[in-house]
Amino acid sequence: MKHILLFIGCFFIGGFLYSQDKNQRKTNDSIRKLDEIVLTGRRKLSNYRQQKTLSSIDEYLEKANKITMIKRGNYAWEPSLNNMTSDRLSVTIDGMQIYGACTDKMDPITSYVDVSNLEKVTVNSGQEGTENTNCIGGGIDLKLPSSKFYDSGLKSSIDLGYETNGNYKSTGLDIEYSANKFYISADGIFRKSDNYTAGGNIEVNYSQFQKYNISVQSGYKINDSNSIEVDLIYDQANDVGYPALPMDVSLAKATIASLAHNYKNDSTTIKAWETKLYFNTITHIMDDSKRPNVPIRMDMPGWSDTYGFYSKVKFNLNKHRLIANLNSHYNRSLAEMTMYPNDPTENTMFMYTWPDVKTFNSGIYLKDEFNITPHQTLSLSTRLALQINRIDNTVGLQSLQIYYPDMQDSKSRFLTSLSSNYSFKKHDYELSFGLGYGERAPSVSEGYGFYLFNSFDKYDYIGNPNLKNEKALEFNFNANRTFKKLNVAIEASYFYISDYIIGEIDPTLIAMTIGANGVRIYKALDNASIFSAFLNTEYKISSSFAINTSIGYNYGKGDSNQNLPLIRPFSYLAELNYMHKSFSSSLQLKGDGNQTNYSANYGEDLTPSYSIMNFNLGNRFEFKDTSIILKMGIENIFDKNYSTYADWNNFPRQGRNFYINLSYLM
Amino acid sequence: MKNLKYLLPILFVFTIFTACDPTDEPVIDETENLIKVQEFRNETHIIEVYTESGNFYTGYNNISIRIKDNATQKYLKNIAINWMPTMQMPTMTHSCPKSELTKVNESTTLYNGYTVFQMTGLDASGWSLKFMYTIDGVDYMVQDTIMVLQSTRQNVTTFTGTDSVKYIMALIEPNNPKIAINDMVVGLYKMENMMSFPVVENYTITLDPRMPSMGNHSSPNNTDLTYSMVDSMYHGDLSLTMTGYWKLNLKLLDAQNTVLKGEDIVDGMVEQSSLYLEIEF
């Protein structure tokens, strides 16, 4: 403990000693502008800048450069950041930890909120994303709207959306009452889609879904500096098909609740102090009753409950902007499987796939953003955390002891994260370098999963409680230069990951799932390297016309030069935008190259290149007290039948789709 | 507080009375967790027979008995007792593997042993059980028919090895299987003649548990069963990854590792061994 304190001390003293210049200046975030996807300002759904007002969070996230969405169906896509998926990321809802309740990753955290709940999504790459929990790939924080003490009285809006492909209907309603000292807002959204059709008018069975989301947010201002806020989100999806998987979901529901105290004062050293208590509970029921032919019928329910708090202080000292965040959470994950033998005289077959795993994580995050000169900023951050995992269910513990006879019921880990970033900015260019080191604990599945079938590589996965922490050394570089009408930006990041956790085949073991190829045990590669680079350009032809392009290159190899799975191939995007007054329109071309560096070992094959075109237009009509926003467009204009590297089992994506979104604001 | 001075003497008196209980030994119900199957009566004694389930089943039966003297109504503690199960078939009579009946421990009245009923009649009939005991130099005997119910799964098997010897193999543990590594115990007996079934020593039984309903799924960290001198049974580890029906595929090897019965499972070729026991839970 002594060492840790000493270490933190040195870390920050180092930062202070470096401060000599008296000039103070706000840091410019523009270099990371690509990492923050602002959904909206005040009116969430009716964001004028989005091409599709009612698009899902998944669609929003997909627009970020570093993010791709892994798809197992038309719903609940799993975000991948820097070519790393949920186990290596910190995905939170306004700082709140949530653990998915599905052993097969059918319910990423992002599926339990909707755009109507959110103000923006903050994406931080690598170790800069460890504020809420330790991770390797980065953090995605889905931000709920901040306090709405606008004194604007009663306001409401209605959103309607329709898409031809899949007969997809969505409706949103938003009501808000805002006074000086009190506000309450409520919103609801409902979405329902039938099976969609892939290019060439081919129906994709089991791609339907239906969901609704209700949220209530209320706040009371005690005085100018102090306020209390309550947030409640209820999200429920039913009848969700997963065409790429052997099972669907009959129910996925989440209740997310929080109580927060906010302190804000611009005149004191402490600028803001936010303390939040939260809890959330998730129930996820997998179901195969709609599938006519299965080798065996089964039920696979899962539950996850999380309780936690964080207390976050922001204060300024000289030229240092400091953030301290103390947080702690406790999660309980339980999942089970019951299989019904084809011979009805036999007993049902039961096992715990997540044996009641308790995770207790407590940590402190410190960040110092130091303006060395008006042009230079050095930012340092660290997170130190203690994580304890425990299995409380005797049956579950004994089942894992089949594989690990000497396994104890609990294990604790100490996790460290360090990150430093230096940025230099002049009026027409910006440069930044980052260096980071981070560790993460294995996820619930990686540590304690029991016969989790991966339908991609067709192996049963067994967790490994003896895994070491995964560690990453990370370098990143960003540069941005403006030449008159042209802006060119390069961003690159490199991760050297040691003890890279991945499933390895154990040929001596016999699979449980009927039709599976065998059993993989979570082990660790000695090391792995992941590199990604993007070149983004923006050219303003005139005040109305602009062209944006983006080219991406990704690389991922293991220690013996083998390809890692789910690494994005060469990708490109070109967009011609037109904006005039309240009218906007854009034509978009995007695609991926051939996935030549696929990982056959993990069930991948060469996904061929594709390119698709999209077109959209929108306008805002202002009336006296109301306004109407109309957005429409065509996706996949040429009805291309394609799938990408991120489509589970190569199932095809949507074919041509016409959509229209109408928002009425009062 | 005022009431306490009345209460204290009462408590005191109560304590004294409790301490003066005439029976010095604490009364232990020896038959706790056991259910009486039936009583064997003759003019002088009653023999109460207990099992955990209250029934006899084909396969291994752990049996407890005690003998009550009709005259004194007391259970007898030190007698020499022996037993003999017999199966009456149309053309012949035979017995089954069994242990001696031994005293559970010095202070109790219970005697314990086991039988392995290798089969039963269609209506659970055919078996009878005879007790022979000696008290003060006088021999007594009592005999009655018993009902032996058919177990739903194969927990005992009779087979002839490649050495032309007829064997009986019975599953003894796990009696209550768990999703875990279970201690597996098997009894192996040789049919010397119709009435004698001695324990076979120092052979090896290989183990490959499978779930036929799950595409012949198997589990790791199973061990072959080896003979233990301590209880004259075969012991090994049995991993069960889930509840349900398991077929325990076995091979019997003699002391020279010659296969007497059973085959290895070969995926897609040999789905089960000809020597197996079954578990369902």
Tell me what the structure shows.
The complex is a heterodimer of chains A (666) and B (281). By secondary structure, chain A is mainly beta. Chain A is built from four helices and 33 strands. Chain A has one domain (2-665): TonB-dependent receptor, beta-barrel domain (Maltoporin, Chain A, Beta Barrel), CATH 2.40.170.20. Chain A has helices at 2-17, 57-62, 394-401, 444-448, and strands at residues 36-38, 67-70, 78-81, 89-93, 96-97, 120-125, 138-143, 153-163, 168-178, 182-193, 197-198, 202-203, 209-221, 226-240, 248-264, 270-287, 297-317, 320-340, 349-373, 376-391, 410-426, 429-440, 452-454, 459-462, 470-483, 486-505, 518-540, 545-558, 571-580, 583-592, 610-622, 627-635, 657-665. In chain A, the strands form four sheets. Chain A has a 22-stranded antiparallel barrel. In chain A, strands 1-6-7-4-5 form a five-stranded mixed β-sheet, with no helix packed on it. Chain A has a two-stranded antiparallel ribbon with strand order 2-3. With 281 residues, chain B is mainly beta. Chain B contains one helix and 21 strands. Chain B has one helix spanning 4-19, and strands at 35-41, 45-51, 56-57, 59-69, 80-88, 93-94, 102-103, 111-117, 127-135, 138-146, 148-149, 156-160, 166-173, 180-190, 204-211, 217-218, 225-228, 233-240, 245-253, 259-261, 275-280. In chain B, a hairpin with a 7-residue loop joins strand 7 (102-103) and strand 8 (111-117). The model of chain B is unreliable at 11-24 (pLDDT under 50). The interface between A and B is medium-sized, with 31 and 23 residues.
Summarize the structure.
The complex is a heterodimer of chains A (666) and B (281). Chain A is mostly beta strands and 666 residues long.
What topology does this entry show?
The complex is a heterodimer of chains A (666) and B (281).
Chain A: H1 2-17, E1 36-38, H2 57-62, E2 67-70, E3 78-81, E4 89-93, E5 96-97, E6 120-125, E7 138-143, E8 153-163, E9 168-178, E10 182-193, E11 197-198, E12 202-203, E13 209-221, E14 226-240, E15 248-264, E16 270-287, E17 297-317, E18 320-340, E19 349-373, E20 376-391, H3 394-401, E21 410-426, E22 429-440, H4 444-448, E23 452-454, E24 459-462, E25 470-483, E26 486-505, E27 518-540, E28 545-558, E29 571-580, E30 583-592, E31 610-622, E32 627-635, E33 657-665
Parallel strand pairs in A: 4-7, 24-27
Antiparallel strand pairs in A: 1-6, 2-3, 4-5, 6-7, 8-9, 8-33, 9-10, 10-13, 11-12, 13-14, 14-15, 15-16, 16-17, 17-18, 18-19, 19-20, 20-21, 21-22, 22-25, 23-24, 25-26, 26-27, 27-28, 28-29, 29-30, 30-31, 31-32, 32-33
Chain B: H1 4-19, E1 35-41, E2 45-51, E3 56-57, E4 59-69, E5 80-88, E6 93-94, E7 102-103, E8 111-117, E9 127-135, E10 138-146, E11 148-149, E12 156-160, E13 166-173, E14 180-190, E15 204-211, E16 217-218, E17 225-228, E18 233-240, E19 245-253, E20 259-261, E21 275-280
Parallel strand pairs in B: 3-11
Antiparallel strand pairs in B: 1-2, 2-4, 4-8, 5-6, 5-9, 7-8, 9-10, 12-13, 13-14, 14-18, 15-16, 15-17, 15-19, 17-18, 19-20, 19-21
